[in-house]
What we know:
Layout: H1 9-12, E1 34-44, E2 50-52, E3 59-63, E4 70-71, H2 74-88, E5 91-93, E6 105-107, E7 116-121
Antiparallel strand pairs: 1-2, 1-3, 1-7, 3-4, 5-6
Amino acid sequence: xxxxGGYDLAKFAKPGASEGDxxxxxxxxxxxxxxxxxxxxxxxxxxxKMMPLYDIKPNYAIMDTGVSYAIIPSKDFESIKNVLTESYxxxxxxxxxxxxxxxxxxxxxxxxxxxxIQIALDL
Length: 123
């Protein structure tokens, strides 16, 4: 089902969510995808300490309607991948059949201590 001009909070949000839990962002005009501005990217550890990824310059992020994918430029993905490999011992296996969108298989010994990837979007 596609809803234009509204949403059903009770149906699509996690139980107990309120209007304040909804995140709104301005869309980049004249794009073919749901595109939002990206102003900063970093890794946030379990102690809420933020490690900015300075190699990634502000850009755009393409979102699908459920945000199960956030698509970023390949060079930015490489920066994130390098930090996770060096700092958190995450291993990445590239897909055998690479297309325009590649899904890497990742493995780590200590999932509980991995940081969250934080992307600051332009509001």
